[in-house]
TrEMBL record, chains A, B:
It holds the Pfam family Ldh_2. It comes from Pseudomonas duriflava. The lineage of its organism: Bacteria, Pseudomonadati, Pseudomonadota, Gammaproteobacteria, Pseudomonadales. Belongs to the LDH2/MDH2 oxidoreductase family. GO terms for molecular function: oxidoreductase activity. Keywords: Oxidoreductase. This is LDH2 family malate/lactate/ureidoglycolate dehydrogenase. InterPro entries: Mal/L-sulf/L-lact_DH-like_ah, Mal/L-sulf/L-lact_DH-like_NADP, Mal/L-sulfo/L-lacto_DH-like_sf, Malate/L-lactate_DH-like.
Length: 351, 351
C-alpha cells in the first residue's frame, strides 16, 4: 500500500542506534523533565508512559515524545507543576481537573477512585479535564484491565480530519481504545485512531518526498489528494472506514468533549494558536466490572471469551496487542535501540 | 461502487406497490402476530418496531421482518408468550432475561429502570439476555435520547464475518449504535454493522445474479471473492475498515456476549442449527446522563455539541440519521408504499 513501513514511527534513521536498558530510558527521561522544572509527580508519571512506549515498540509514544513535551512547555501550553483536583460529581461519575498539566498525573490520581466506583456499582466513568494529552490510550487502559475491569477510553485531538461527505478539517485523529482482562494473560487491548492513518505517517511521507496512497487525505477543496504537504498544510485527513469511521470520530468529539465539559478538536486547535504542540482537552474513560455483571457465572463466562480469542488465533488472526506484548518481552530481556539522532537531540535538550 | 442501490433493501419489486397509512401498517402487523399466538405485549412491542422501520424508510426493518418473525416462530426459535424477568444485579447494572422471546418486550420492561439508574448514578448499563434479536439498534437508542441520555448499544448476530487476518467466519455483523440527545431536535444517532455491508446486501446481489465488489467477502479459503453465493454459503463476509472494524466486531462479541453471560455469534449460529432464522443472544446498552456529568454547565456545554453539528452540516456532511428523519416526516404525512409482493406474502400468512 505504501513504500514506508509504519514501524518506522519517527523520522530518525534507525541504522545508527544507541542501545539502552529500560532503566537507562527511565533515567534519561527523568533528567530531561527535571531539568525543565516538572515537579516530581509529573516527572515520574510522564516518564513511565515514555518508558512503556519504548518498551512496547511504540517509538512514536516513546522517548521521541520528550521533544514535543519540552516544545509544549516552551510554548507555554502545559503547566509543569499542576496539582490535579478530583471532583466526585455523581455516584458513578468522576471528573478530574488536570489544571493544564499533562494528563498522566491527573489520571493516576483519579484511577483508584474510578476502580473503586466500578467495583462498587458495576460501571463508572471518569472525565479528565484541561490536560495536555499525548499518551497512548492503551497505557490508560492497562491499569484497568490489570484490576480485572473492562475499559473504554477516547480523546479528541486537533481538527485535522474531514467528516465523511464534508470538505474541511473538523475532527481530530480521535483515538478509541478498549480493553478486556484475561486471566493469567496480557489483556486484549485495541487502541486506534479513527483517522485513516496517524498524522505522523503522512509527515513521514512528506519528509521522504513520497506521495501518500489515495484515501488518506484531501486538498483544500476536499478533493482526493496524494501530496502529503498539501494534505497537512491546506487540506484534511480522512477517517478510516468512510462514514462509519466518521461517525465514530464524531462520537469521540462529543463524549470526550462537551459531555465532560471539555474542548472539541476544533477548539483545541484554536487554543494551540499556531504553536503546533500537544493537543489540549479531555479524555473519557469508562470501566465495567465483569464480576458485578456475572456474579457466580464469572469464571465460566470469561472462559468463553478465551474460546473466542483461541478461535481468532487458530485461523491466523492476530490479537490487537500481540505485537506490543512481544516487543515488551524482548525489551525487558534485551533493552531497546534508540536512533543516535534522537538520542543526541534529547541530550541536547539538557546541554 | 455497485449496481444495486442499497435503498432497495428487500428483494421485492417496488414498482408495483400498495399504499398504507402507518395506522394500517400497525393493524396488519397486529393481525399477523395475533394470528400466530403472540401475547399482547409482544404483539404491541414488535409491531411498534416494524412500524418505526417502515416509517423511517428502513424497509429491511419494516413489515418485511414479519416474514422472518413467523419463520422464527415456526422453527421453534422464539417464545411467543415469554414474560421477561428483570434482575437488579448491581447498583448501576441491570440484566433482563427475555426468556426466549423477541428482545422488544424485555427492553421495554427494563427501560424505565435503566433510565432511573442512569439519572441517579450518572451512568448505568443493561444486558438483555436470551432474546431473539432482529430490531434495529437505533430503535433502542431513541427512548434513551428522548429521556435526555447519551446511549450506546450493540449486539452480536450469527458468525458470518471473518476476523481481519483470519480465513473463517467467526464474528457476527455486530452492529454498534450511539445516540446523543439534542434540545428541540431529533437526536444524533448512528447505527451501523461492523461488517463491510449488511448480509442482505450480498443476498440482493445473489438474487440479481450480479458480482459483489471486492472487499465485501472471501471464499472458503479466505481469498478475496466477488461471487455472492460463494461468500454466503461457503466463505465469509469482511469487516469494514480492515483491522479496526475487526477489533470493534470483537469488542461487540465480548461486551454483548460473555460480559452479560450471553452467546457469541458462533454460539448463536450453532443454536440456530441450520434453521436460518433470527439470531439469538444478548444486547448491551449503556446510558449516561450528561446533566450528571455537567451540572450547572449542562446548557452551555450541550450548545457546543450543536456547534459541532452545525460545522458538519455547513460543509456538506450529513448527520447520521438525517435520511431517516426525513423519511419519517414524509411517512407521517403521506403514509408508506409497500411492495405488492410483500403485501401479498404477508396476507398469505393469515389466510
Amino acid at each position: 500500500m505504501t513504500a514506508i513501513d509504519s514501524s518506522q514511527q519517527h523520522a530518525y534513521d534507525k541504522v545508527d542506534t544507541v542501545h539502552m536498558t529500560l532503566e537507562e530510558v527511565r533515567a534519561l527521561s527523568t533528567r530531561v523533565l527535571e531539568h525543565y522544572g516538572f515537579t516530581r509527580p509529573h516527572v515520574e508519571a510522564v516518564t513511565e508512559t515514555l518508558v512503556a512506549g519504548e518498551r512496547d515498540g511504540c517509538s512514536s509514544h516513546g522517548l521521541y515524545r520528550l521533544l514535543s513535551c519540552i516544545n509544549t512547555l516552551k510554548a507555554g501550553k502545559v503547566a509543569p507543576d499542576a496539582t490535579p483536583e478530583l471532583h466526585d460529581i455523581a455516584p458513578a461519575l468522576l471528573r478530574i481537573d488536570a489544571k493544564g498539566g499533562f494528563s498522566q498525573v491527573a489520571y493516576l490520581t483519579a484511577l483508584p477512585h474510578l476502580i473503586d466506583k466500578a467495583k462498587a456499582l458495576g460501571i463508572a466513568a471518569l472525565g479528565i479535564n484541561h490536560c495536555a494529552h499525548f499518551s497512548a490510550l492503551w497505557a490508560d487502559i492497562e491499569p484497568l484491565t490489570d484490576a480485572g475491569l473492562v475499559a473504554f477510553a477516547c480523546t479528541p485531538s486537533h481538527a485535522w480530519v474531514m467528516p465523511a461527505g464534508g470538505s474541511k478539517p473538523l475532527f481530530g485523529t480521535n483515538p478509541l481504545a478498549f480493553g478486556w482482562p484475561r486471566p493469567d494473560k496480557p489483556a486484549f487491548i485495541f487502541d486506534f485512531a479513527t483517522s485513516m492513518v496517524a498524522r505522523g505517517e503522512i509527515e513521514l511521507h512528506r519528509r521522504a518526498g513520497k506521495p501518500i496512497p489515495e484515501g488518506w487525505g484531501v486538498d483544500a477543496e476536499g478533493n482526493p489528494c496524494t501530496d502529503p504537504a498539501t494534505v497537512l498544510d491546506h487540506g484534511a485527513m480522512l477517517t478510516f472506514g468512510g462514514h462509519k469511521g466518521s461517525a465514530l470520530a464524531a462520537m469521540v468529539e462529543l463524549i470526550a468533549g462537551p459531555l465532560i465539559a471539555d474542548m472539541t478538536s476544533a477548539e483545541s486547535l484554536a487554543f494551540d494558536a499556531g504553536a503546533k504542540v500537544t493537543s489540549m482537552g479531555g479524555e473519557l474513560i469508562i470501566a465495567i466490572d465483569p464480576h458485578r455483571f456475572l456474579g457466580a457465572q464469572a469464571e465460566t463466562e470469561l472462559a468463553r471469551a478465551e474460546t473466542l480469542f483461541e478461535s481468532m488465533v487458530a485461523q491466523g488472526a492476530r490479537l490487537p496487542s500481540q505485537r506490543r506484548y512481544l516487543a515488551r518481552e524482548k525489551s525487558i530481556r534485551e533493552g531497546v535501540w534508540i536512533s543516535k539522532t534522537l538520542y543526541n537531540d534529547i541530550c541536547n535538550l539538557i546541554r
